[in-house]
Write a structure and sequence with these properties.
homotetramer; alpha+beta; Chorismate synthase, AroC fold; 5-stranded antiparallel beta sheet; 4-stranded antiparallel beta sheet; 31% helix
């Protein structure tokens, strides 16, 4: 389950089982769903320079198996099913060598079963397809209310953009992002990232990076300062940390802790007799509540842990020290991660709008 | 409420009401509580260079009003009550000038009441005393199981320590932290921070900073990769973002996103025939589950928004542009924040131990 | 905690601790509270023929220690504190004889502590004062929306009324109930109950009974059939079973299971061109959702288990078979239970209105 | 979702969609599942005198689409999928005549859509197949711990058994139940019920009834008196009220409210030097906590609302008063309801064992 107040979102499905699932209870009645738009987002998640050939072969499609009636939602539990291509591995060829950076060892310490293949069923990126499907539905709902969510790659390894996209229109920003093979809307930086990925691939190593997310037009007054469960910053953070590889998260200016109060806090001013903010270092959230400025977050992802050059490990059965080796591997997951983070941000944003609408 | 699975923790109390409260449902039966140790943590929270005179006068003491019988816990809902010194402001002297960086404006957009004093009752740091009390109880419970939680100031503004405390014994680290007027265990850096605080105080400005937290001896196998609600990284993040001023959070090495996979992922090796990790960039959590290494996190706090030099705002009633001014103010909350973050980390750690004990 | 979707209601407090508490998170902003009305309900709970002298001496009063600002609610966690008169028992005079019908033995099997006095702190009727306070607040909120909740005693032991109060105005029904020393609005039956209570008191025995509850003017369309958490019948049932002594609960006509479909199901008809229901055997809920008819429930309470004639038990320490004896005791709790059930019904009703208001 | 503390159980699926689903998060790792036993329970649910021909044609089979690895559970979210036979109705032939006793009208008042067919997708008995699948899994888990759950029909309409089955061995009781075409283990009464059903079928009317449930060998000390969420009586009640047609629920002796304390409360005595209870009027739960005696409950179901003789309604579009007519219909759902109530009791019992195991 994701952490939510109004919607009840369950993500399920083994990576080699027949399908992955996004189940949503509490989605409002009577919303017309554009299923093809959801499939479009599923496809975006599958694209991205640096992704291995495996992803390219898949072509995810969502099927609503519950909660949709002649194209509109019925407030009954929605079941979104996305078929998997693979099948459970057969045979007794156990994998007993834990992979550093994966859940293998921590899961082994929890479950005490030495076949690491089991843990890879749940602790894999495959389930993020279901997050993208649910998030895409939520984005449609938000867009009908004029709210737009967009995530893009800001950096990959040490290569990052210094462009400020805050004043770019959402359509243009999305177009630029999708134009980039790595989903970085600064096309110069995009090229550098592509080059770096090629370089690192040759070395058999991997890269992480950062994803920036904007929520534009998000209404002020959503959330609360009364509890972690109802604070927008807490719930956003929790859900984003549930995405594999995320190790850090910031709201607003990631340098706020280095600066002084007079530099950081967003002054009020007047423009055409309306109260405006003269900056947005707070990233749209003050005291856990949205303040009417765009929500701006940064998510920090570690390099993917499947490293084709191999990395040292110890076999849990034989006690032998040896390298974990991969025959194929992506260099970075930062580009699909941007699509997944966009989705989970949209789920969280829709949940807050639904929950606070009744006040 | 905090986000938890087993314990049910409610933090309540207006900053000028008669008391603040920590209410805990689900705490195990039969645990002997050292109330004076809790009062010791409450006192630590009140100390700290850079804090204004107001805090010095208070002397928080907790009273268990429920759930304690002859000194041990009864598994009934615990009510911890900490008296406030102040009283609700009297008179109709409304404050209609929202303070940048506070919840004033976002709360106003939610509730539409123009008297900002109301919002300061809930969106204040006063309630963190209740968090410290609950966290202190949880620390005692963890310590009985050999688990130790410690937070300290790593940087204030741009001044930070580069020392690595990971190999220091917990007792020594705690002693050093408490010796420092700003809770920074690197005493050279501590001095520099004190100097910087004095400087910034003279300018009427404020500072933020970072807090490092260690959880030592935390058992492996706690948490799950199946949902945001049960992932240790998600829940830790959510609870820490509920602390006022926190804008960022990292688990493990905060530079992981910049580095390559071979640098970041923590190799397995052997020592005396036991499997060991050769580094701890993951910060003790892989795939949402603890891996047996110390849990290491960094929390990033913005400067406090009450700036004695004044900061531009607009009166919500008169529309007049003017500065919010403070007659007194702290320069930074980073030192008490370390005590609060230690507490909320302990609550989260105890919750996971209790929840996973039944597996 | 009660089971709720929108409000978050925690009931706490030991029966001999300093106070009992009702804590409410999520109550809407800006509601003017009539505290004296709440104290009136607290007083009603303390009255009732058959109650022992202990209750008469108490005079419960609620104090809002958080969440109220100049008389209106602030959406911050509300803390309602009601002082207790008693104090924790002193000395080491353990009670090791479990009382049949109390939680003594079941709690002992859970906690393994042989002093039964501990369990009486939590598993007592004292905490229902806090439920009445929270329920009274919710009743005020519902009444502003034209919704009225009323509970009354329908039977005590084998003596019950056969009057149908469904067409009586709420004010008259409430007046009649409060006129009756046992809260039974059929004054003939009320007299018989009083007589029966006197009889049973002389025999040192105790009585149970039934409480009928009406929720008038409750809006149609609240609740859902999608889950136990969102069904009105499930949540109402759960909360009412949390009241000590409740062993049964019915919604609508308690003979529905005996009758045929054509007798039970509430036909639709027309009156002044409006669709009406020709009966209300469903008790206002169909498929878990309110249907616009009054909600009608019956709660069934066992006799109170503190029996002055004594009842057989076995000492957990000595193994001796002996009777549990009471020097004083009430004959029945059915009258105060009516006030408590009214309160918890109001909490549940308000929760559903708040939760579904956003749809 | 069901109301649970440890397991997280989501029931989903439209009655004419491709499948219904039981999704379970938190089920323990490493449990060997007997899938055929689950299919056996699914079949039992489909049998039962009085059920129409529709049910006989179906032959439900469960498929684990997640959370099972080589036959054992992996603690990852379990997805149990049961294919439906039907398909969504095609065409625009709206049904605008609400059926008394169904969710039609209450759902219409919630959603304002005049096509009643929509609401029948969620508010139907079809989803109870998923409950039976999840409950069957939980029964297997409980049986490994020596705990047995059994439900049977005690009465149908006014015909009920007066036999006491409390001393019958569980295997014999189950054999007798399954032998009866209506799942009533008193074979004389069973015959009378069959005769009554035939009679009522000829009249085109329907019947309700009562289901008795035993949980044998359930450990003492499960549950808590501290909150509705953790009381066993509250949670059991809530989940059972989520079963369509349930209008009443009792724990223990359903006449407790009529009797005196000395008759009702279960004395302690000694047998072979062990403490025993001399009766079980409490039905195994005191103060919300299991006391070690069998848990005994009674569920009360209204007659099914699909009445072939027709029942008066009013068309929501035309305003015309006319009868709702059914071409085919069952007379009663009491027999399959017994299987469903057994399942949901097992889910609740397993949840409490899992949750309290860690204490």
């Amino acid at each position: 389950m994701l952490i939510t107040n109004y919607l009840n979102v369950q993500i399920a499905g083994d990576s080699h089982g027949p399908a992955v699932y996004g189940i949503v209870e509490g989605f409002p009645f009577g919303f017309d769903v554009d299923v093809e738009k959801i499939n479009g987002d599923l496809k975006l998640r599958q694209i991205g320079y640096g992704r291995g050939s495996r992803m390219k072969q898949e072509c995810d499609e969502v099927k609503f198996e519950s909660g949709l009636w002649k194209g509109f939602t019925t407030n009954m539990p929605i079941v979104m099913r996305i078929k998997n291509r693979g099948t459970y591995p057969e045979g007794d060829d156990e994998r007993t060598l834990p992979r550093p950076g994966h859940a293998d060892y921590s899961a082994y310490m929890k479950y005490k079963n030495k076949d690491m293949r089991i843990y890879a069923e749940g602790a894999s990126a495959r389930r993020t397809a279901a997050i993208v499907a649910v998030g895409s539905l939520c984005k449609q709902w938000l867009e009908k209310r004029g709210v737009f969510v967009l995530s893009f790659v800001e950096s990959c390894g040490e290569i990052g953009t210094r462009m400020n996209f805050e004043n770019l229109k959402i359509e243009e920003l999305r177009a630029r992002r999708n134009e980039s093979p790595v989903f970085c809307p600064d096309l110069e930086t995009s090229k550098k990232i592509v080059k770096k990925i090629d370089e690192v691939r040759n070395e058999g190593d991997t890269l992480g990076g950062t994803v920036k997310t904007f929520v534009r037009n998000f209404p002020a007054g959503m959330g609360s300062f009364s509890s972690a469960q109802s604070r927008m910053d807490s719930v956003l953070g929790a859900n984003i940390f549930s995405i594999p590889s995320v190790k850090g998260f910031f709201i607003g200016n990631p340098a706020s802790h280095l600066r002084r109060g007079l530099e950081v806090h967003d002054r009020f001013g007047k423009e055409n007799d309306e109260i405006v903010r003269l900056s947005n270092n707070a990233g749209g959230i003050e005291g856990g509540i949205s303040n009417g400025m765009p929500i701006v977050t940064t998510s920090y992802l570690k390099p993917i842990p499947s490293i084709s050059a191999g990395i040292e490990s110890v076999d849990l059965v034989t006690g032998e020290e040896k390298k974990v080796e991969y025959v194929r591997s992506d260099v970075t997951a930062i580009s699909p991660a941007a699509i997944v983070i966009e989705a989970i941000t949209a789920i969280t944003a829709a949940d807050f709008c639904l929950n606070d609408g009744g006040m």
